[in-house]
Amino acid sequence: MIEEGTKYILDSNVFIEAHRRYYSFDIAPSFWRFLIDKAKANKIISVDRVYTELTRGKDKLAEWIEKEFNFAFIETKNDSEILIKYAELMNWTNSQTQYLQSAKDEFAQVENADPWIIATAMVNNLIIVTHEVLDSTIKKKIPIPNVCKDFNIDSINTFKLLRELNFKFG
């Protein structure tokens, strides 16, 4: 468990989109320092499976994650509360008629970070930060915000996180 107060859990795409598109290391180093500072202040975390996704490639982002941000990922594999919520999510997934079986299968893959992020958010009362968006008509994928809606979990994007935590360039 993490400390009380408003806390956030980050999806892989928060890091990937920032690195590849709008906050690359050479353009916005203050963004990356901000993430480190907020993680050290126990305001943001992520999960072990996000760490695995991000370090699979051997690029600057993987290097940064391994060297600068590795302390911010919590282990999900041996946390009984997270495992119970994960099982609840798998039961929910199987009961859904909106999604194709291929979407359910992808969501249920044990290496897929999404259900682990959601289960961790459920246990620790965290706000999920993702670039995925709510889509009530989608069938080919199970977006995190769709699950959040059904489980009454808050989800926001990176820009809302930055506003809520008063990020300023400089």
What does the model show?
By secondary structure, the chain is of the alpha/beta class. Helices cover 55% and strands 8% of the residues. It has helices at 12-22, 29-40, 48-56, 60-69, 80-95, 101-108, 113-124, 144-151, 158-164, and strands spanning 8-10, 44-47, 73-74, 127-129, 155-156. Strands 3-2-1-4-5 form a 5-stranded parallel β-sheet. Helix 8 (144-151) links the parallel strand 4 and strand 5 (155-156). Helix 5 packs across helix 7 (113-124). The longest helix is centred in the middle third of the chain and has 16 residues, at 80-95. It starts with 7 loop residues before the first strand and ends in a 6-residue tail after the last helix.
Kindly name the structural category: alpha/beta
Oligomer: single chain
Task: Tally the beta strands.
Answer: 5
General form: globular
Order of helix and strand elements from N to C terminus: EHHEHHEHHHEHEH
| Unreliable stretches covering 5 or more consecutive residues | none
Number of helices: 9
Explain the layout of strands and helices.
Layout: E1 8-10, H1 12-22, H2 29-40, E2 44-47, H3 48-56, H4 60-69, E3 73-74, H5 80-95, H6 101-108, H7 113-124, E4 127-129, H8 144-151, E5 155-156, H9 158-164
Parallel strand pairs: 1-2, 1-4, 2-3, 4-5
Highlighted features:
170 residues, alpha/beta, five-stranded parallel β-sheet, 9 helices, 55% helix
